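Handout, section B. The chain below has 488 residues.
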Amino acid sequence: MGDGLPLSQVLSQSQVQMDPKSARAKFLASLSSLHSKTCHARYPKAPECAWLDQSWMDEFLDESESPQEWVPQQRSAKVVGLWKKAFEQGRAEISEKYKSQHHPGDIYRALKKMNPLHPGLEKAAIALAQSEASCFHSELYYYLGMKFEEAFPVQSAQDLAKGVYAKADQCGKSGSGAQRESYVRKSRFRLALIYLDQNECSQAVPLLDQIGKGGENDLTTRALYWKAYCAKDSNNKDSYLSIYDQLLKLNPLGFHTLSMLGGDSHLVDQLQKDIDPKVERRSKNRPEMNNWISTLEEVVHLGQTELARKFFSPTRVNPQALNALEIPVRLYIASLAYRAKDTFALFRILDSVFRTRSEYVVDATLKLFYPMKHMEQIQSQVQTVSPLLVAALIRQESAFNENAKSRVGAVGLMQIMPKTARLMDRKMTVQKLFQSQNNIRLGVRYFESLVERFSGDVELALAAYNAGPLAVDAWLKRYPTSNKLLFL
């Protein structure tokens, strides 16, 4: 696994603390807020500026598929209103005058408060599905389908959803219209799930095959899992085992992979190997990224953890861009994220490693990927659930960042809403909720109440913790399937 230094040795290296008011600290801090041209103009001889203007940064900052597009300020209320009016009138297009102002997310907002059984929506969907001549925005099909799913299990809603999802699949194959691949993929996946629920694997598998074409994406492992499900259902053992091997190599720690593994000892055998992966400090494949790595190295070595997190931001924007780097180099960057206490960046980097090289899923890397933090506090609070489950919940909710605060106001390790916290403790303030002991105490109490509410069903309790119990109640009515994984 490489000829560099052992990962354990790099992790144990001490840090040099530096006065945050020193000239060097101020200089490094100034870099994190500068664009490349400004940086070079102000500090023409600073190598730390070099990483800012490299072409590889464009890969990190390519947010074309990200939720950032949904920021309200970026959208025209006028255009959203026009879409809503069009749907109410049974149309699925707006005038040419405003088409240039259309932004992904406008359709979502227009549909958000509409009744899924509105006659206008039905008329628009039928016209879209039956149109042979043209293809529209791919998100139009996806969001319409999702709107109809809100009325499931009503048969007419199912038929309408299938129609628009199928049109998205057709348009995606033809490549015509404003087709964004992420929405085409999601439409295919939703349609495949409907067919699976109706025990029609023959209809679902071709859609799942399409999702896997063109390289790995956000739905690859899910598509593979359900292909394996259909292979097992039809007693196609060879296909099932082939997909099993693909999943194990592609994403050994993924939910769907672990669901297939069951009692298989493969991962346990791997963890028992005494392996200390090697790291490399610089990249040979992408030398243009080495200035960025050296800057990370410096701010971490000097003990500037808050500043280091700013420089780690590219890994949070688009961790897939790290795939261009050698595995030992990624492990080195992960060690820097660990020392900077940037757990979110650490998890993203290691995930990029595990998704491409399953042999790196060993004890040394998993201890970084699943840190056992705050276990004493957790164990002192739990009564009915496993402390490991609570630790996993904290990892997912905040990446163990005590100061985490979401866009909607959820606070601290367990991302508790202040309103929810005050229902359990009237004297609880937002400031106190950032303290780990208070956050864990109330978070565990709330989660255990959800487990009790859903009769011990941990998966439903976890879903309710994230989306709210009323949302889960609605999903249970919407998708009355006996297949637990299909429901999830």
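Note. DSSP finds 30 helices and two strands in the chain. Compare this with the example in section A.
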